[in-house]
Amino acid sequence: MKRLPFLLEIGVEEIPDWMIPTALAALSASFGKLLRDSNLAFGEIRTDATPRRLVLRAEGLEVKQADSVEVVSGPPKSAGAGAAAGFARKLGVDATALETVTTPKGEYLAYRRTAKGREAAAVLSEVLPSIILGIPWPKAMYWTGKGGARFVRPIRWMVALLSKKVVPFEVAGVASGNVTTGHRRLGKRKIRVSIADYETKLEENSVLVSAAARRAKIEAGIAALLGDGLCLRADPALLETLVYITECPTPILGGFDPQYLSLPEEVLVTVMRHHQKYFSVSYPDGKLAPNFIAVMNTSADPDGLVRRGNERVLRARFNDARFFWDFDQHKKLADRVEDLANVTFQAKLGSYLDKTRRMMDLVGELGGCDNSRRAAELSKCDLTCEMVKEFTDLQGIVGGLYARAQGEPEDVARAIYEHYKPVSMEDSIPARPEGRFVALADKLDTLRGCFAIGMVPTGSKDPFALRRAAQGVVKILVEGRMPLAVEQLAGGNAQLIEFFRDRVEYYFREVRGFPYDEVRAVMAAGWPDLVDVESRLASIHAVRPTENFVRLAGGVKRIKNILRQAQFAGGFGFSEDLLEAGPERDLYDEFLRLPGAAAGYRPALEAIASLRPAVDLFFDKVLVNAPDPGVRQNRLTLLSDLLTEFSKIADFSEIVTEAGDAPAGPRSCTN
Amino acid sequence: MDSYQQILFKLKKYWSDRGCIVTQPHDVEVGAGTMAPETFLRVLGPKPYRVAYVQPSRRPADGRYGENPNRLYKHQQLQVILKPSPDDIIEQYLASLEAIGIDLSKHDIKFEEDNWESPTLGAWGIGWQVMLDGLEITQFTYFQQCGGVDLDLVPAELTYGLERLTAFLQGKDSVYDIEWTEGVRYADVRLADERQFSVYNFEMADVATLWQLFDLHEKECQRLLDAYPKYPEKQRFPLLPAYDQVLKCSHLFNLLDSRGAISVTERVGVIGRVRKLAVGVAGAWMDQQSAEVAA
């Protein structure tokens, strides 16, 4: 069967950069599904995009579906000529076209219907409109009038080629064709393309279709601009943004007056990064240089117009920042606490003043010192400052810088500065205890409050970023080695405790890399505080590779099963006198010699694991279900006591004991 | 180098040549050109419309006593509405920049996602901020909803920040240094305005009086809205005056806000009160329009 290449280009007005990769994945998936569902074989599917075009290319597309044959069965042959004629009439064929098939039930009339395979082009024409309009967008719009097509931005042109032929269809009033369009100012408006010359024709018109090519062009351009004296502050997320807001990216190097370096670096970098989408640049010693890199969506800046324009904008922004800094100093943070009454935290949870008071109480509850309480008191005051109103990403950081400038103790300033940390699982926790207390109080207050009013995250909906808050709490507790009771932190809210359980498991599994069964085993034995969970996990992980341990885990499962089958409920006194000399007595003696968890989890675990031969021997030689009920109960009690002792560190029955599936080892924490 | 007013003339001419009615600013305080009835009411309903006007826009909280080189209590927007939006609207927009002397082949233009929403007007749209060499010069919005109503025809709204655009073209670091016309700076025309209104808005506006005014305008608007359903000759009914009352309320809300007089609990409620009026007028306006068509 003949195989053809296919090209689809959806021409759109500028699509928000961050939506593009997800949309491409969805487009590729639904296109592949269409081909499979239509029984059309195909080779590789590739997608690419610029802000103005989503591109899908498929190789080796089967030109036509295979013909299919369907056997339609009719009445029994014995039903006679009338029935046969009726059956033929229903199918719209002549009765002579019918044939006879033999089935276990006898002979039947049947008709062999051949369905012609459809041309791929026809299939594509029919379904491409719904595939295109079916691309899911976080936010879509209509533009042709009420009830019209919805898409991320208006669709303006469409290229659809199967080999040399246009696949005809229409979406939102736009007909497909073989004409694309170039860069808005450097390219031609109408460019006839073929599959073979699509990418080169666009490149001639200043459009790099390939995101990888744009990325490479930006990186090479930056390297050439910087030379040896300056270093780029790498920012992969910013790079991706720039890749997807340009069709013809070209970096330029700009500068600013070094006098602005007296402003805090955090402010300068934020202005450049978030407001202007510039990369920051530093000297080899790491100090911020009075330069920036902007990425234009055009090929060159021969007269320096773009550079000077960007420098002027940056100067205005830095002037603003300096104005905000000076203006904000007119009123100290300490004098702004009451102003927080005018800043909403959440309609039902009151103002930031309410939140501040709750946080101060929480810091006390957690055992924070006076400096922590002071930091909590001032932590949200920067929300009333002009600097934070303008540069919202700098909340906390600005507060910390102001606190320092206004003579608050260094521990207080630093705690304010860091109290939003960790902002991600990769981020570090606040460096000092004061910051950790404030960070915990902030996050816990949000969590408790939201859970109390029923604002619980569901699926992908988590507007208050509660998962991140809870994850931050877990990370701080473990990595800050704070043995606080989670149940108490959750304010006794059962739903919140369960929410934390998920976050704790996630943290140890995904962030720290402990095998899931070890995490489950340890959590099943209780998780009153996370420092303890971590040390139990670490000891389990250390002891696990020993043969005794794995086999003991098997033994524990057996004990559990026996107790379950016996419906053992306890309540029987234990009598040493009923022990039988030999394996039973030996196991008991060894059990008594166990050092207990007080000796440290690892020695305790090693000691428990060393009981393995005694346990094995017990199961080999001793009949738990002894005929004498007293002996039987005594043995069950012994097993139950053993299980209780073993389960103090972890529930071994959760450990996967089949060979070969022990997951990879843990990573150390990030700081 | 074009002066501020020359740039303005050229832009108005440009859009006039493309079928826009060029009108004068609305004479009631508004926070943005969108709020003027020429936008808010005209985008409703199925009638095509094209209009361009400069709208002085008052944002009390943005006042800086004339001391900040880039921030103004009252700035001038050129507001352009094309309803329905033509397919080549972006090209037309870019050509408007060329019409005021910006050679786009030598500059960097980017369209960055920026969706617009006004909770007080029950309005929102999808669009971009247009960046010229890193400077935001225009807000570009495809309206989707106004006064809580899905729009029949999707208009494109172009809002040019005239001070910024001029500062860019004239190479000025402070808007106050813009040349308004030969020998006259922006400061000469507007500095006193900025200074005095900042003092009033932040320091001297009487909160009790503002609340009283808010209540009065709200009542007046509501009275009219209540009267509309029973009024026999729909086309004569004063909905435009009712809408002016909404604008008064909205501006008073902004003033109260800049005085720090609106508490957390009140805030959402007051926005809701203004929106209720805006949505009420929008609904009645739609009805009045269809009555006109019928008549």
Show the helix and strand layout:
The complex is a heterodimer of chains A (671) and B (295).
Chain A: E1 3-12, H1 20-37, E2 45-50, E3 53-62, E4 68-76, H2 81-91, E5 99-103, E6 106-115, H3 120-133, E7 141-142, E8 150-151, E9 155-162, E10 165-166, E11 170-171, E12 174-175, E13 179-180, E14 191-192, H4 198-204, H5 211-226, E15 231-232, H6 236-244, E16 250-255, H7 265-275, E17 279-282, E18 288-296, H8 305-328, E19 344-346, E20 350-351, H9 352-366, H10 370-378, H11 386-390, H12 397-405, H13 410-418, H14 433-452, H15 466-479, H16 486-489, H17 494-511, H18 516-524, H19 530-543, H20 547-565, H21 583-593, H22 601-610, H23 612-621, H24 629-646
Antiparallel strand pairs in A: 1-3, 1-9, 2-3, 4-6, 5-6, 7-8, 9-10, 11-12, 13-14, 15-17, 16-18, 17-18, 19-20
Chain B: H1 4-17, E1 21-22, H2 37-40, E2 49-58, E3 74-83, H3 89-99, E4 109-113, E5 116-118, E6 123-132, E7 135-146, E8 149-150, E9 156-161, H4 162-170, E10 179-181, E11 184-185, H5 186-204, H6 207-227, H7 239-258, H8 264-294
Helix pairs in contact in B: 6-7, 6-8, 7-8
